[in-house]
């Protein structure tokens, strides 16, 4: 079988750390790479054995020579690019967040369905080894009915690992702050791991350090369709280290998912006989970012004709939760303690 021919739009850190090496690892041929401003575009192209580089993504599409496109640009560009790719019969893998509005999400989904092409959203953290293992444990029912979840995801900010990408701090390009960046991942993980839909979100946000009108830190309270409750804390001002952890508690026990891939998951639960069982579980896979797994899943869906494992409707559901959290911050939907006198009216 001939290798899948793929083009990549965007040559920033997500492309360099994830999509470009991931495509090569999966055996794809990267026939084109486009970025309208990256000063080292030619060098990046040479590193990843790209046939041709472009400064104009439409010119790249006009030139053709590929069956699929991965989009690694700021989210305000996702919809226009994905829709045009679908119109040309190209399969699309687009980075998260899917877009900056539900209207754009709907337009992307409609274009893909009309063209009969695959639209997959790169929820790469679903493919991280620790999260895949956690999903197996939860699906086995060892915790019983899930009651509570608590997730934390924070680091020093997007400028730490991608200094040139200032769009993260611009409302017109990012749509939201840390909630759309890191919160998106945790909202998706809680939804996927529990197998429940997000029904309501409340949030508090603050801007402690970053020079932006967007939030650089936030705390979310999430209600899910199975009556599970979740709290999620996300921030761009963590120091000196980062954290990406999750704890899930159910009627029979608790599962701790650590930040570091080198650390095992910890499971503690009560068996049907009443015995408390404690165990640790190490990941067999070395895919700590999840990007390689997401790319393999995308290419497999194209090759086999199977549905994308994370389609546009999945991305839209998470985007709705992101927008709900952002709206909650804007409306400040909290009850001041000065306005209450008793528990009951």
From TrEMBL:
Gene3D superfamilies: Dihydrodipicolinate Reductase, domain 2, NAD(P)-binding Rossmann-like Domain. The keyword Protein transport does not apply. Pfam families: GFO_IDH_MocA (PF01408), GFO_IDH_MocA_C3 (PF22725). Keywords: Oxidoreductase. Residues 131-255 form the GFO/IDH/MocA-like oxidoreductase domain. Residues 4-123 form the Gfo/Idh/MocA-like oxidoreductase N-terminal domain. One of its GO terms (molecular function) is oxidoreductase activity. This is Gfo/Idh/MocA family oxidoreductase. InterPro entries: Gfo/Idh/MocA-like_OxRdtase_N, Gfo/Idh/MocA_oxidrdct_glycsds, GFO_IDH_MocA-like_dom, NAD(P)-bd_dom_sf.
């Amino acid at each position: 079988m001939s290798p899948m021919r793929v083009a990549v739009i965007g040559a920033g850190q997500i492309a360099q750390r994830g999509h470009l090496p991931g495509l090569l690892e999966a055996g794809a041929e990267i026939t084109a790479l486009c970025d309208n401003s990256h000063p080292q575009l030619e060098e990046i192209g040479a590193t990843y054995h790209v046939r041709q580089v472009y400064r104009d993504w439409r010119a790249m599409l006009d030139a053709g020579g590929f069956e699929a496109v991965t989009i690694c640009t700021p989210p305000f560009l996702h919809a226009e690019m994905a829709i045009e790719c679908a119109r040309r019969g190209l399969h699309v893998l687009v980075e998260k967040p899917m877009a900056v509005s539900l209207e754009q999400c709907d337009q992307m989904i409609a274009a893909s369905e009309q063209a009969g092409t695959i639209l997959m959203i790169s929820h790469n953290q679903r493919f991280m080894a620790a999260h895949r293992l956690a999903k197996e444990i939860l699906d086995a029912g060892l915790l019983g009915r899930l009651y509570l979840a608590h997730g934390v995801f924070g680091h020093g900010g997007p400028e730490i690992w991608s200094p040139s990408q200032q769009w993260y701090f611009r409302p017109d390009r990012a749509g939201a702050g840390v909630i759309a960046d890191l919160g998106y991942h945790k909202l998706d993980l809680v939804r996927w791991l529990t197998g429940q839909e997000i029904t309501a979100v409340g949030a508090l946000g603050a801007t402690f350090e970053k020079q932006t009108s967007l939030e650089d830190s936030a705390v979310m309270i999430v209600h899910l369709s199975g009556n599970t409750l979740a709290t999620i804390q996300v921030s761009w001002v963590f120091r000196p280290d980062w954290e990406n952890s999750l704890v899930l508690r159910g009627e029979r026990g608790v599962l701790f998912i650590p930040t570091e891939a080198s650390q095992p998951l910890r499971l503690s639960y009560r068996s049907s006989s009443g015995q408390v069982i404690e165990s640790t579980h190490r990941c067999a896979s070395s895919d700590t970012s999840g990007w390689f797994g997401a790319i393999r899943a995308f290419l497999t869906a194209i090759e086999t004709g199977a549905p994308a494992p994370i389609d546009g409707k999945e991305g839209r559901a998470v985007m709705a939760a992101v927008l709900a959290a952002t709206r909650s911050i804007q409306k400040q939907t909290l009850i001041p303690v000065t306005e209450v006198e008793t528990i009951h009216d």
